[in-house]
Amino acid sequence: MSTTTATLDNTALHGDTGTALRFITCGSVDDGKSTLIGRLLVDSKTVLQDQLAGVQRGGETDLALLTDGLSAEREQGITIDVAYRYFSTAKRKFIIGDAPGHEQYTRNMVTAASAADAAVVLVDATKLAWAAEVEDGTVVKRELLPQTRRHSLLCHLLRVQSIVFAVNKLDAIDDAGLAFERISAALNAFAEAAGVQVAAIVPISALKGWNVATRHADWVGYEGPSLLELLEELPVTAQDEAVPFAFPVQWVEKFSASADTSQGRRVFWGRVASGHVEPGQRVTVLPSNQTATVAQVLSHTRQPKSVHAGHSAGIVLDREVDVSRGDWLLAPEAFEPVREITATVAWLDDEPLVAGRVYWALQGHRWVKAKVARIVDRVNITTLESEPATQLEANAIGDVVLALQQPLAVLPFTQSRALGSLVLVDTASHKTAAAVLVQPAAAKA
Amino acid sequence: MNARTETELLQPPMHSPARLSNTHLDALEEETVFILREVAAAFERPTLLFSGGKDSLVLLKCAEKAFGAGRIPYPLLMIDTGHNFPEVTDYRDQRAKELGAELIVRSVEDSMKRGTVRLAHPGESRNAHQSVTLLEAIEEFRFDALIGGARRDEEKARAKERIFSHRDSFGQWQPKDQRPELWTLFNTRLAPGEHFRVFPISNWTELDVWQYIEREHVGLPSIYYTHKREVVERRGLLVPVTGLTTPARDGETVQVRDVRFRTVGDITTTCPVESLAADAGDVVLETLSVDVSERGATRMDDMTSEASMEKRKKDGYF
User: Fold this and answer.
1) Are residues B196 and B63 in the same domain?
2) Do residues B125 and B200 share a domain?
3) Closest to A232 measured CA to CA, from A1, A3, A20
4) Counts for chain A of helices (H) and strands (E), in that order
């Protein structure tokens, strides 16, 4: 049966494997996400005796119960919110977000995806009409489930670095080889149309553990690594270091009189959004537009250091300038703050997005009011075509134009995650209503 | 529906995870420091829940790194059931003093005197009643953010919780209606009377905590390491015999065993495990080979029902 097991492989490590890989499992309801995670936890020996005993039901083990942690979830047999689980192999640590499949809980899936380095999109082979034959000399268009499309598209839009399709439940199909071939073709066709880069397509049985941790040899013509072997090699998200220096001020630390403040009375703490910072860097403050030079840079633990994108830094400037939480320190003349942005939004609130309404927008640590100037369009999840819309309902994806109360320095999300992402918050309910991904300014007329 | 499988398929392959590099601990520490600073900046009256237990001591170590000793910008808050291990409360006081931090202690016994906590019977555990005292302290000091040392790997309901977790004006958690939490753009907006629970070490595992304690030489109360203790065996747990709170029952034999605590809470709900681990390095090695979870081995309060943690959390528990 098994030829190779991911966890026994001692080949050299690639890349930055010292940091955990954060990945999510997503896809449609009942495609086997929670079972897959249960299988990964059991096969990597992360599940302990008492936890396994806790999911025995009438002599059988329900792997999904390992992650469905809320009583409402166990009652209904569905996943409502993301469960985070932790496991490691000899090679790597992993943080899994088990995302819900129901459309109603897309907001929780987006929550998990926004922090993920990789996504495993589960596809239930038994739910697809893969067996249909050729019609009129053209292959029948094999429809993927809407949630498979929606989740893949969201992962792509959120720039999840690696998207892996795991075709599940193939053990329950007689002609599994043909099913895998045809479903793979349908996935590739969809991915191409949607612009989704596919890292791999792996045939698995989460229930039986085939190709999950351990390779299942001579099956459906697949010769590649098991899912876990694949995950052990996937890169963590690369930082946007090629972009000029930008730094959102999270917290201003004030010192009264003391010896260590000769270079200034305040330290500006935050996480470098792009580029890197070292003493001598010139900066412009947004919004005051004052300029200064970086005198000292501290690491997150207050040690002198130059700091790269993605890491926390404390910055001391060479002169007194007006800087408070929410302001940005920017490389001079590298950014052009704007009062209007075009952005793709993933709408997450039950209250629909309405043109003309004002929301709170958060970029970095800055809160500004944002008015929906107009809704450009909405994506049809099935056809991937844009269609006109007057509002965006819960779980819809569309493009909008936002008018901002104060100027922000933005870049397209495809260039910079930190400068290109905002959230919208409902001013009345305070609920987080949308993920906002900035588009290039000229992309939409 | 969710799939079922036979138990014999679940035999795991034999291997043990190797001890992993420091990069991983650096990344966790950095995430925690980022969250601690966010709380300092985004809220008006935050506090850090500090029990003297290992998770809160790790949290405090990160706070020390974030702000510098003597400069932690929020008070520490402890809810005392009156049934705490003296080694732990002594260590708590000592540590708060070393760091020059303000320590606020509010006790379940005071809530009982006020009549806001009523025990069903005098022997009932006070553990779950801490929620009442905690909510009273929140009202007294008008705290708008409470930093806690809960970790997602501890328990299934905790595995579901956001890092910035919203509480309504009754202090209740709404697990079915959590706010989305996108990237690290934390939505900290509140209506009057509401507050947040913030969990900066959400992504740490028990092993990470012990590796960090080893690497950073984080001091802990002595009962986290091996010591001789009188215990009785009850429902597969080693129940400490502490005289007043948990006397041996009829038919139980008091034995002296070499034990350490994996978690420390209220005396009446926390059990030690058999161990000869004398320092953090020993505990790391033991943690790599355990086959029972941290709370499963040690907590009587979690064994009452599958959803007991979720129920307590909804009521305002840590």
Assistant:
1) yes
2) yes
3) A20
4) 8, 27
The answer for B 276-315 residues in CB contact with A (under 8 A) is 290-293, 296-297, 306-307, 310-311
DSSP reduced 3-state for A155:
helix
What CATH number has the domain bearing residue B140? 3.40.50.620
Instruction: Mutation target for A interface from B1, B4, B154: give the one with most A CBs within 10 A.
Output: B4
**pTM of the prediction?**
0.90
Q: B113 and chain A: CB distance < 8 Å anywhere?
A: no
The count of domains in chain B is 2
**B190 shares a domain with B238:** no
Residues of A in contact with B68 (CB under 8 A): 302
Per-residue DSSP letters for A66-85? GT--SHHHHHHTS--S-EEE
The distance of B267 to chain A (nearest Cα, Å) reads 22
Q: Are residues B57 and B175 in the same domain?
A: yes
Q: Is A3 on the interface with B (CB under 8 A)?
A: no
**Assigned domain for B224 exists:** yes
* Calpha distance B26→A89 (Å, rounded): 19
Residue B159 and residue B173 in one domain:
yes
pLDDT in tens, chain A (445 residues): 333 434 323 222 333 347 899 999 998 888 888 889 888 888 877 766 667 677 666 666 677 777 666 777 777 777 788 889 888 888 889 999 988 888 888 889 999 999 999 999 999 999 988 777 665 655 555 689 999 999 999 999 999 999 999 999 999 999 999 999 999 999 999 999 999 999 999 999 998 999 999 999 999 999 999 999 999 999 999 888 789 999 999 999 988 655 554 445 799 999 999 999 999 999 999 999 999 999 999 999 988 889 999 999 999 999 999 999 999 999 999 999 999 999 999 999 999 999 999 999 999 999 999 999 999 999 998 888 999 999 999 999 999 999 999 999 999 999 999 999 999 999 999 999 999 999 987 544 3
Q: Can you give the residue range of the structural domain that contains B272? A: 220-303
In this structure, the dihedral spanned by the alpha carbons of residues B274, B279, B285 and B290, taken in order and rounded to 10 degrees, is: 30
Classify residue B247 by its DSSP letter: P
B233 and B183, same structural domain? no
Same domain, B52 and B75: yes
The answer to whether A76 contacts chain B (CB < 8 Å) is no
Structural domains of chain A, ranges and CATH numbers in brackets: 2-233 (3.40.50.300), 246-330 (2.40.30.10), 338-438 (2.40.30.10)
Residues in chain B closer than 8 A to A422 (CB atoms): 185
Sign of CA dihedral B35, B38, B43, B48: positive
Residues B233 and B170 in one domain: no
Searching chain A, which residue's CA lies closest to the CA of residue B34?
A: A312
ipTM summary value? 0.90
Which of A8, A71, A435 lies nearest to residue B15, judging by beta carbons?
A: A8
